[in-house]
Amino acid sequence: MADDVIISADSHMTEPPDLWVERIDKGFRDRAPRVVREHQGKPGIWFVCEGLEPRSVAGTFAAGKTPEELAAFQKVGYESARPGGWDPAERVKDMAIDGVAAEVLYTTLGFRLFGLSDSPFQAAIFRAYNDWLAEFCRYDPRKFAGLALISLLDVDEGVREIQRCARMGLKGAMIMASPPEERDYSEPLYDPFWAAAQDLRMPLSLHTSTGHGRESRYNVNRYMRAMTLPHETQRTLITLIFSGVLERFPGLQIVSAENDIGWIAHYLYRADFTAQKFRYTDPAPIKLLPSEYFRRQIFATFMDDPVGISTWSFVGGDNFMWASDYPHTLATWPHSRDVIARDFKAVPEDVKSKMVGETAVKLYGLLA
Amino acid sequence: MTQPKLISADSHVNEPGDLWVERIDKQFRERAPRVVENPPGQRPGAYFVLEGIPPIHLAQGTGAGKKPEELPKFFQSSTYQDRRAGGWDPAERLKDMDLDGVEADVIYTTLEFRQFWFTDAAKAAWPSNNHWTATSARPSSAMKCSARWSC
Predict the structure, then answer these.
(1) Comparing C-alpha atoms, which of A362, A325, A345 is closest to residue A100?
(2) Which of A2, A203, A218, B141 could disulfide-link to A253, CB 3.0 to 4.6 Å?
(3) How close A280 comes to chain B (CA, Å)?
(4) CA distance A239 to chain B (A)
(5) pTM of this structure
(6) pLDDT, position B122
(7) Scanning every residue of chain B, which has its alpha carbon at the shortest distance from the alpha carbon of A274?
(8) CA torsion through residues A152, A217, A44, A260, sign
């Protein structure tokens, strides 16, 4: 891989407003999630789905907007979005503007759909998205690693769908960042799915805002939400490590997406300390230290986190992956290379190369 | 060169098990939180008993200095009174601080943690603990305590 190649390990799609109305199984068409202009008298463009609070969509494609421009941008529609969100040819042009060679593609409107509790409905929504995403990625599989949406409210359905998505060329999968309380990820009922993901070498992503916890809801204070976003993934990683899931499935790979990385060094220090202190009073079904499972099986994406980058030597340089978050509001696009140059000044070149590209290339088979 | 002073900015008392039974306002005395050894239906050990919630095992509040392999037996076999007296006896506390080379402690509660959940009885209990902590920190035998403890 050339020295100056950068890969975004977490970029996003802008789903067409009629994606589900057009593609969902006929039995669900009347209930299909959709984008509407004005909602209950509120101006703007809204994504609505039964059982979920409506979400304003403008902020999902505001990459490159300054803070002072954002307020007015909240009212715009898809005509103001960059077509790279749904058009692969336009996407490649925007990547060239930013100097990004390849991208790992996450959903946007799918975030809150992970909060649905109607299993067949959620599975049908996800299948329609996965079909559309696979078509997008076929434009250039070297540059696009698409991540499927997998419903785990019915684990057998999840197994079938991740196998189908692997056959369609998708490279990994998103699962709910935190499950409903009564279906904790420590439960053996998930084992067939962990085994399938392991066999398929499909990394499973826990992206911010995709859980059943309160942190994933949009109808809460913006600042409280912004500051607590990583909590769901932090809880889930505790479960996956201490309940022995990563011990029993040593080839399973987990990705923490858009949860920043500055907390990870301390989190692992505390996890190791706790595991050692209470290994006799409350023995966990694990053989390694929590930090060893992390280094072996867990990866984490970040965009603009200079504090986190400075901790690379505590965690190891093999697990952090830079991302642009294009086309979302927090994106580094179109200044990604400036951000990287600023934030990686004190990082050795070989470690930097891994964090801005090599690790993502290996994990998802990009540029091959 | 003298060693720099060490000051612990977060240490704890282990309140006597009968602190609230002895000191709480009379109308709350029957409901007073208390420490009970080996209550029925629980695994062995000392428990803090408060009305309205299950007994709280007092495992981690007293295990300073114990190795991981010593903790299971310590949690299950020792009584509350067997634990380090520095938790409630200021003269003993000063000895333990000397063992650790600590010059002064900022003292937090232990048993009151869960009482922040409560509305009436807990609030009545707080003055008892405040008074006890303040008087414990001023033993006549160790005048330096008032300078070494911040309550």
Answers:
(1) A325
(2) A203
(3) 6
(4) 22
(5) 0.90
(6) 52
(7) B68
(8) negative
